[in-house]
């Protein structure tokens, strides 16, 4: 490298570091913005300042070198360049066809009773729903939970257009990555569009951790990948994963991540599996080590570690000009009726009405985990669209599968005598609440 190009390289890199530093100074975090990082705009003042610094830097490039030297060593040049250009040019968001009303937070709203347009499909008409979620088939006596529509306070959610989804996915791959709650959202998504594809043009197959729905005439796949922690863990077996002593391995996202490469639209979630108590076991070496080096972190710190790994993986593997990445927030459980002011001892069993306290939030780690997510995402420039479904789902104590599902093992007489004891207050009946999550995913994908 001759002296001139050397100094030129450093000047550009320096300029980029400065832009980066300045951007960090004014990167507000807003849950309602479609891209957590997409809305920042350079003020004229800032722009002039950067132009001036760039000018000085070109003149005195060599002298500045030492100051920035250390940062430059860790600099991923092309990576930062593309993200910076995107910021300056206010590039179009991939797949966008329109916009929801300015300043409308689609996650802030209320549930409206709707007998006419909900549910969006019938349970019996979607063959892909796993028997753990078919509540009607398993004897649920009421259907009220199917007739609710989410209405944002300040705008409407665009109508789910299955044909638009399929046309967009032509020749592409969409993948949901996470735990059984994400699997529920995945199945709901397939149920929302499978009707448009004739019987012999579609299929769903499972290969270990990966389930693939293929729409042949569109050459499109919609996939689900089981990775309940996103990182490698001792709960990764797609079938046998009911382990109480959970261990997650630090820095291991590529273990699963190599199976997500080349995907055009990714939807992540992870939460429930971290809720094992106050501490989480984190493996520092490898699962093959004879003597395993394990540290215990607080749930929040361990979760933060996973969030950072996910963002880093996205930064290194997803092209923001062509792909989209979503992250679905924590799905709430309704296992303790005292949370919503009922007598102790109850849960979601026999609940047919919504929680009507708009400030209801629930117990467990929801709040502190939400804070971790907010903190990690706000510090990052990686474009991930946040689906903040926690609050709207908090109201839905009525929407869980409860006792109306296929059981893992036969129930004892004692259990049968006390349905509350075996009600599933974690997962959701389909059709139901998770169709709304997908209407919001649809809204954020096409109308960011
Ligand atoms: C650069 O990376 C090395 C290790 O890869 C690390 O020790 C060093 O602190 C990093 N420097 C900066 C400025 O981030
Ligand atoms: C749905 O999408 C299709 C294909 O993109 C489009 O032709 C159609 O007009 C859309 N329908 C509605 C109701 O917006
Ligand atoms: C089908 O889609 C894949 C990407 O998922 C692409 O690589 C392939 O070229 C497509 N095939 C045809 C025939 O369009
Ligand atoms: C279910 O709820 C109804 C009222 O909503 C109540 O009358 C009934 O006793 C409850 N059943 C059980 C088994 O808790
Ligand atoms: C998600 O929405 C809830 C309720 O509207 C809010 O309290 C929380 O801060 C939001 N989370 C993030 C990370 O924006």
Automatic annotation (TrEMBL):
Residues 103-156 form the Trichome birefringence-like N-terminal domain. One of its GO terms (molecular function) is O-acetyltransferase activity. It comes from the Eukaryota. It is found in: Membrane. It is a single-pass membrane protein. Its main location: membrane. It holds the Pfam family PC-Esterase. Residues 157-443 form the Trichome birefringence-like C-terminal domain. Keywords: Membrane, Signal-anchor, Transmembrane, Transmembrane helix. One of its GO terms (cellular component) is Golgi apparatus. The chain crosses the membrane at residues 44-61. Belongs to the PC-esterase family. TBL subfamily. This is Trichome birefringence-like N-terminal domain-containing protein. It comes from Phaseolus coccineus.
